[in-house]
TrEMBL record:
<keyword id="KW-0808">Transferase</keyword>
<keyword id="KW-0627">Porphyrin biosynthesis</keyword>
<feature type="domain" description="Porphobilinogen deaminase N-terminal">
    <location>
        <begin position="11"/>
        <end position="203"/>
    </location>
</feature>
<comment type="similarity">
    <text>Belongs to the HMBS family.</text>
</comment>
<protein>
    <recommendedName>
        <fullName>hydroxymethylbilane synthase</fullName>
        <ecNumber>2.5.1.61</ecNumber>
    </recommendedName>
</protein>
<comment type="pathway">
    <text>Porphyrin-containing compound metabolism; protoporphyrin-IX biosynthesis; coproporphyrinogen-III from 5-aminolevulinate: step 2/4.</text>
</comment>
<dbReference type="InterPro" id="IPR022417">
    <property type="entry name" value="Porphobilin_deaminase_N"/>
</dbReference>
<comment type="function">
    <text>Tetrapolymerization of the monopyrrole PBG into the hydroxymethylbilane pre-uroporphyrinogen in several discrete steps.</text>
</comment>
<dbReference type="GO" id="GO:0004418">
    <property type="term" value="F:hydroxymethylbilane synthase activity"/>
</dbReference>
<dbReference type="InterPro" id="IPR000860">
    <property type="entry name" value="HemC"/>
</dbReference>
<dbReference type="Pfam" id="PF01379">
    <property type="entry name" value="Porphobil_deam"/>
</dbReference>
<dbReference type="GO" id="GO:0006783">
    <property type="term" value="P:heme biosynthetic process"/>
</dbReference>
<dbReference type="GO" id="GO:0005737">
    <property type="term" value="C:cytoplasm"/>
</dbReference>
Length: 203
């Protein structure tokens, strides 16, 4: 099969390069192809981009600029016409968009719940005093300490796979992940314990 020429590309989708971001971009691509039968698979290109939030992993987001760190480079590419669509997780987006951009559409919401991830306990309440929980989310940190002021909470960043790897290495005793991301990646693991929304407020 011949390579697709640039002139043959009808839609360019910009996304981060994590497995979850790519899964979401491919879902958007599949929806476009389903809705527009005249488009071939090769006509919709996924362009992977690196953001500052992906590159700086040793500091809390609140210390280095907030949520826009995951979207700024991609939005700049959109404004400059290098891509036609940007695909983000809504939780990563700042409340105000740059001039000239709009939130055009969004997919149906997945499972809204957070998941407690640990091999040592099935729930936060079952961890021993002094247990170490890793999460970069201020929302999750606040709720964790409100429910269990006797545990230690520290900043813990990275994509889904890297956080699970850190859990394997016993860097922390537990962490949290969004059930939506786990479902989109098709991950099944005995350490995944969904938390009901009346127990732990999701994003």
């Amino acid at each position: 099969m011949q390579d697709t020429k640039k002139d043959d590309i009808a839609v360019r989708i910009g996304t981060r390069g994590s497995p979850l971001a790519l899964a979401q971009a491919h879902e958007v691509k599949d929806r476009l192809l389903c809705a527009h039968k005249n488009l071939s698979d090769d006509a919709v290109e996924i362009i992977v981009m690196s953001t500052q939030g992906d590159r700086i992993l040793d500091r809390a987001l609140s210390d280095i600029g907030g949520k826009g760190l995951f979207t700024e480079e991609i939005e700049e590419a959109l404004i400059k016409g290098h891509i036609d669509i940007a695909v983000h997780s809504l939780k990563d987006m700042p409340t105000s968009l740059p001039e000239g951009l709009e939130l055009a559409c969004y997919l149906e919401r997945e499972d809204v719940r957070d998941a407690f991830i640990s091999a040592k306990a099935a729930a936060l309440k079952d961890l021993p005093a002094g247990a170490h929980i890793g999460t970069a989310s201020l929302r999750r940190q606040a709720q964790t300490l409100a429910l269990r002021p006797d545990v230690t909470v520290s900043t813990f960043r990275g994509n889904v796979q890297s956080r699970l790897k850190k859990l394997d290495e016993n860097i922390v005793d537990a962490t949290y992940l969004a059930m939506a991301g786990l479902n989109r990646l098709g991950l099944k693991d005995d350490r995944i314990h969904p938390i009901e929304v009346d127990e732990f407020l999701p994003a």
